[in-house]
Amino acid sequence: MNHPSPPTIDPPAVQRLERLPLDQSPWLHEEVARRMAERLQWIKLQPDAWLDWAPSWGGLQGHAKLLELYPKARAHVHEPVPARAAKARQTHEPAWWQPARWSGRAPAVGLPSDGSVQMVWSNMALHATDRPQDLIGQWHKALAVDGFLMFSCLGPDTLQELRALYAQAGWPAPGHVFTDMHDWGDMLVEAGFAEPVMDMERVVLTFESPERLLKELRELGRNLHPARFAACRGRSWHAQLLHALRTSPALTEPAPGSLSLTFEIIYGHAFKPVPRIRLSSQSAVSLQEMKTVLRHNKKNLPPV
């Protein structure tokens, strides 16, 4: 499982998606953020500092909810896309004259120092990256030992009705293939996380018209499949698509008079354990790993 990128994601398409202007977080992302925040009640650890990865895409309302849940913790916001990072400073950093700027409780924009946060939160980002192992590695690097990761993403049953329609019409796939939750669990373990817990649910959204359906899908992303249609398609094909959507049994049977699409939502949770030092006849251990192990062992020594 050491692919440089998922086999059905085109890296240039990801870069073009990231350059698109983003006026607000997609509605579905905000709803998933709300549901994921409800799961935090089962976690006893109260972070002193936490990192929100790409909240402009993952949900600004979700970010506000986390600020309410952890009012005493220091929040960090990281936007990997430069244009969104500039906007994040305007959104999250208070003006020089506001008390929040001097209280130390205002969100800090930018990556925190390595191993300095107890929670990394990433909502609806993992399925749209062409280098998921690298992204998971960055989350692991940011976390302190015993800190935890919370993330969500789309799963393989997403858009199953639309995929069937495209296949029947002989068109290229409408989107890339989404990774199964068990594979995400394997990647977490490979990156050094422990006790990954994966869960999923299916959300069925209904749309009043084909036009509304397509508009919502454009807000959720773009087709990142390497084998997607390579050129611009004209009005004739667009009319065919609208007709196919209106008449497709897969989309219309569950809710007559409207169109339905399935979205599989995957939730993941894992802890960062003390690093394991692999010993052999000759072993190389980084200074940072050694410091981490020594600090953890000292903290857990029994009282004399």
Task: Give your account of this protein's structure.
- With 304 residues, the chain is an alpha/beta fold.
- The protein is 40% helix and 19% strand.
- It has helices at 11-19, 27-38, 55-58, 60-69, 82-92, 99-103, 132-142, 160-169, 181-190, 210-220, 235-247, 249-252, 287-299; strands at 49-53, 74-78, 108-109, 117-123, 143-154, 194-207, 259-271.
- The chain has a 7-stranded mixed sheet with strand order 3-2-1-4-5-7-6, sandwiched between helices.
β-strand amount: 15-25%
Biggest sheet: strand arrangement? 3-2-1-4-5-7-6
Secondary-structure-based class equals alpha/beta
State the end-to-end distance.
46 Å
Q: Given the C-alpha coordinates, what overall shape results? A: globular
Output the number of helix runs: 13
Q: What is the tally of beta strands? A: 7
- As a percent range, the share of helical residues equals 40-55%
Order of helices and strands: HHEHHEHHEEHEHHEHHHEH
Largest sheet: 7 strands, mixed
Averaged pLDDT:
88
- Uncertain runs: none
Write down the Rg.
22 Å
